[in-house]
């Protein structure tokens, strides 16, 4: 077998702790182990996981750019906007638990202030994300 059950458990734990998608992080580690602790195994596994998505996005984006003025494409994207907002809100609500946010009032305060800074004060969202992260770290 490529991995022992203990190694698999370690992969899941490490992949959740490191930034980035779990699938890519896991593939990187599995490639490393499967290739005999070789960085080339990590590189090839990571590339193999990313390549199909890259090709698919490339093809779909070319199609969308070619047909961007089509009323059907415009309608599809118009309908997808609220779905994307709902998915992001769902993920946020799923992560809002006592383990991640011991005090909801502080978290809600940071979220409200962040919204005000981005929407009304027109501060760049990346700067607001950094400020919110620093605030969360300082307050928790």
Report the principal-axis shape. Answer: flat
How much of the residues is beta strand, in percent?
A: under 5%
Biggest sheet features: none
Helical residue percent band: over 70%
Structural class: mainly alpha
Gyration radius, in Å: 20 Å
Topology, number of strands: 0
Q: What is the N-to-C succession of helices and strands?
A: HHHHHH
Distance between the termini: 43 Å
Overall average pLDDT: 89
Figure out the total of helices.
Answer: 6
Structure description:
It is a single chain. This protein folds into 2 domains: 1-70, no CATH class; 78-140, no CATH class. The protein has 6 helices and no strands. By secondary structure, it is an all-alpha fold. Helix content is 79%, strand content 0%. The mean pLDDT is 89.
Keywords:
140 residues, 6 helices, mainly alpha, flat, 0% strand
Summarize the structure.
By secondary structure, this protein is mainly α.
SSE topology:
Blueprint: H1 5-17, H2 22-34, H3 39-66, H4 71-95, H5 104-119, H6 125-139
Helix pairs in contact: 1-2, 2-3, 5-6
């Amino acid at each position: 077998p490529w991995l022992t059950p203990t190694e698999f458990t370690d992969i899941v734990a490490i992949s959740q702790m490191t930034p980035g998608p779990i699938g890519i992080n896991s593939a990187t580690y599995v490639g490393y182990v499967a290739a005999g602790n070789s960085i080339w195994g990590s590189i090839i596994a990571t590339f193999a996981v990313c390549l199909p998505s890259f090709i698919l996005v490339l093809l779909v984006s070319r199609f969308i750019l070619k047909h961007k003025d089509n009323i059907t494409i415009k309608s599809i994207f118009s309908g997808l906007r609220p779905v994307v907002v709902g998915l992001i809100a769902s993920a946020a609500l799923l992560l809002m638990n006592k383990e991640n946010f011991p005090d909801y009032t502080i978290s809600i305060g940071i979220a409200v202030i962040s919204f005000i800074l981005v929407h009304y004060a027109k501060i760049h969202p990346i700067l607001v994300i950094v400020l919110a992260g620093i605030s969360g770290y300082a307050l928790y």
